[in-house]
Design goal:
By secondary structure, this protein is of the alpha/beta class. The protein has helices spanning 3-22, 31-36, 93-108, 124-133, 147-151, 183-195; strands spanning 46-51, 64-66, 72-74, 82-88, 113-119, 140-142, 163-167, 173-179. It has one domain: Glutaredoxin. The protein contains six helices and eight strands. It has a six-stranded mixed sheet, covered by helices on one side. The longest helix has 20 residues, at 3-22. Residues 52-195 form the Thioredoxin domain. This is Redoxin family protein.
Length: 196
């Protein structure tokens, strides 16, 4: 083997070792992840918050959709409350870490803010297992046709999961959080949305 061939083989071996190291984040012992499928493919942000000043907010977001329980809903029906839209899927590790935070904040803001979970990937059984595991009481929809993700595409980067958008009382995007959300951050964002 000549020198160029040896260097190429070493490069391929190094790349393979790097991929093997990345595969160390496994879901082998996670029953929820097994039911949902592979946890690979999510692109998680770092929880960066972007708030939009009231004068810079675009038109209200409007979309009618079917919830996981079969009921019909519309973003308009929740006005004048703030609306928290959270995109997730069951095998996404940061989605599972933030779920208890979302449940806690949803309970705190009951009557003042509506929460909508948007499952961007799973079949109904995997989504329901996630909902049951984390005792999620707020409405959840499956976005199999991508309509909600499409509606939010001007606000959120594609494939950023988990992501959260907070709408103000008029239904306009007031803030986005790309990545896992913490309850203290979300509380502040909702308070700001309710004021503006």
């Amino acid at each position: 083997m000549d020198r160029r061939g040896a260097l190429g083989a070493l490069g391929a071996l190094g790349a393979g070792a790097g991929l093997l190291g990345l595969s160390g984040c496994s879901t082998d012992n996670d029953q929820l992840a097994k039911q949902a499928g592979s946890g690979q493919g999510y692109v998680s942000g770092d929880g960066v918050v972007t708030q939009i000043a009231p004068g810079e907010r675009k038109e209200p977001l409007d979309l009618a959709f079917t919830l996981l329980d079969g009921k019909r809903a519309d973003l308009k029906q929740w006005r004048p409350r703030a609306v928290v839209i959270n995109l997730w899927y069951a095998a996404c590790p940061p989605c599972r870490r933030e779920a208890p935070e979302l449940v806690k904040v949803a309970q705190k803001y009951k009557g003042r803010a509506e929460f909508l979970g948007v499952n961007v990937r799973d079949q109904k059984a995997a989504a329901q297992a996630f909902i049951d595991t984390f005792a999620i009481k707020y409405p959840v929809m499956l976005d199999a046709d991508g309509r909600m993700v499409s509606l939010l595409s001007a606000i959120l980067p594609p494939q950023a999961t988990p992501s959260t958008v907070v709408l103000d009382a008029q239904g306009r995007a007031a803030a986005r959080i790309v990545g896992r959300v913490e309850s203290s951050t979300l509380t502040g964002v909702i308070d700001d949305a309710l004021q503006g």
